[in-house]
Amino acid sequence: MAEEHKHEESIMEKIAEKIHGHDGSSSSSSDSDDEKKSSSQSTIKTKIYRLFGREKPVHKVFGGGKPADIFLWRNKKVSGGVLGAATVSWILFELLEYNLLTLFGHVSILALAVLFLWSSATAFIHKTPPHIPEVHIPEEIVLQIASGLRIEINRGFTILRDIASGRDLKKFLLVIAGLWVLSKVGSSCNFLTLVYIVTVILFTVPVLYEKYEDKVDDFGEKAMKEIKKQYAVLDEKVLSKVMSKIPKGAFNKKKD
C-alpha cells in the first residue's frame, strides 16, 4: 500500500510539473509578445519630428569636437572668453571707431616693448629670461579648413546652378526671399555688425535649442504643416497657372 501511495504521488508530481511548465512557457511567450509590443511602441515614439529633418544630436551637427563644445557652452570659460573677445572687438571697432591696423600696431608695440625690457632686465638682476614660445601654424589644419571651404563653396555653386536652370520653383522662391532679407539686413548694418550678430546667434540659439529641444520641435512641426498648407494653396492658385503659361520648348528654341 505504501509503494502504491508513493507511485501515485510521483505521478501527481509529474502532472503538476507539466502543468507548471506549460504555464511558464505560455507566460514567457506572453512576456515576449509584450516585449515586442513595447518595442514596436517605442520605435513609433522614437520617430519624432526634428527641425530641418535633423537625425543627429545638436552636438554632432556642430561636428562633435571642440568647436561644438564652445558653441554649446560645454566649457563655459572658453565659450565666455570667445564671446567676450568678440564683444570687445565689436565695441572697439564699431562703437569707438578704432582702426584695426592702429590697434594691431599699438598692441604689437606694447607687447614687444614689455618682452624686450623684461629680457634685458633679467641680465642685471640675474634671473632667467621669459620663455617665448615658438608659434607655428600646422599645415594639416590649414589644409583641412581649405578643403572644407572648397567643398561648401562648390556645393553652393551647384545649388545656384540648379536654381538658375529653373528646375525647382520652390527653392528659387526661398533663395530669392533669403537674398532679399540679407540685402535688407546689409542696408541697415555694416559687415562687422553682421558678423557680430551671427556670432551672438551661434553662441545663444543652439544652446537654447538644445535645452528646449522638444518644445521647439513641436512648434516647428506645426509651423511646417501650416507653411506647406499655405504653399499648396499658392501653388494651386498662382504658381501652377504661371508655369502653365510658359511654353516648355521656349528655352530650347532660343538655344537653337
From TrEMBL:
Q: Which PROSITE patterns match?
A: RETICULON
Q: Which domain of life is it from?
A: Eukaryota
Keywords from the UniProt entry: Endoplasmic reticulum, Membrane, Transmembrane, Transmembrane helix
**Localization annotation:** Endoplasmic reticulum membrane
Region of interest: Disordered: 1-41
Renumbered to this chain, the Basic and acidic residues biased-composition regions fall at 1-23
Question: Transmembrane ranges?
Answer: 102-125, 191-209
Cellular component annotations (GO), alphabetically ordered: endoplasmic reticulum membrane
Q: What is its main location?
A: endoplasmic reticulum
Tell me any Pfam family this protein matches: Reticulon
What the entry lists under InterPro entries is as follows: Reticulon, Reticulon-like
This protein is called Reticulon-like protein
The record lists the organism as Thlaspi arvense
